[in-house]
Amino acid sequence: MIRPGASWGDAVPAGTPVREVTGDDAALAAAAAPGVVVRLGPGSTAELARALGLARPGTGPGTTVVDCDLIDLGPPASGVGPNPAVAANAVVLGVPPDGLRAWHRRRPVTVTVDGRALFAGRATTVVVANGQFHRGVDLVPRGHPGDGRLEVQVYGLAPGERAPMRRRLGRGDHVPHPRIAQGQGRGIEVRWARPTALEVDGRRRDRATGLVARARPGALRVLV
Fold it and tell me: For residue 114, is pLDDT > 90?
């Protein structure tokens, strides 16, 4: 876990196995394994790369390894939710923020962070993030993939507030906002009143009524 002001990254130990990934964030998460360093090859679409400063994966010499977190996912205590999974970058329940339109309905949802209530009300979207970027925008400006914590955003925007929010996403100044609740912690639980859309690292999953997300610090070692 990286603390404020601390350096991030070490030289690659001699003999360390390196696994190249050319896919997306889901492929990056799937490649993680104890004792393995992952290198993002040319053509990778992993958005976590931008948070690591890798604007063009696979173009550098790759001499430093950084320890990133993963997001472990499972159903809430009620047992109603998605099958256990893992994510590298971001999980979205509901309508992705860049797709929010005036006609999308807000529905009852509760969100807790490390056992403390963050939100209870009506919202269109919950984002749980390890990284900073999603679908090409600066969705979670505070996101740091190596700090041992997850970020969460809950979108309760009124219909007329959504278009202005979308215009600000590229700059990352859509937050703070009085109707976008934000939190940070190691464990996040989301419960919807009815099944809602679920996206894990950009891939659609079965609809779910909730999930539990927990940070797994240092589980993904990436060569930069």
Answer: yes
pTM, 2 dp:
0.90
Segment 159-164 mean pLDDT = 97
- The whole-angstrom separation of Cα 166 and Cα 101 is 9
Task: Determine contact, residues 45/185, Cβ cutoff 8 Å.
Answer: no
Strand partners, 91: 128, 200
62-98: per-residue pLDDT in tens? 778 889 999 999 876 555 555 558 999 999 999 999 9
Compute the distance between CA of residue 60 and CA of residue 50 in angstroms, rounded to an integer: 14
Cα separation, 162 vs 102, in Å, equals: 7
With CA atoms as reference, report the closest residue to 165 among 30, 173, 136, 188: 173
Q: Which domains does the chain have, with CATH numbers?
A: 14-69 (no CATH), 71-216 (2.60.200.40)
Contacts of 64 (CB under 8 A, 6+ apart): 9, 10, 11, 12, 223, 224
Write the DSSP symbol of residue 42: T
Separation in Å, CA 89 to CA 106, 121, 162, 167: 25, 26, 24, 22
Among 177, 204, 215, smallest CA distance to 96 is for 204
Assigned token pair, 150: 């997850």
**What pLDDT is recorded for position 111?**
98
Residue 25 parent element (H or E) = helix 25-31
Between the alpha carbon of residue 207 and those of residues 125, 128, 146, 204, the distances in Å are: 13, 16, 29, 9
What is the C-alpha separation between 190 and 127, in angstroms, rounded?
10
Residue 4 has pLDDT above 60, yes or no: no
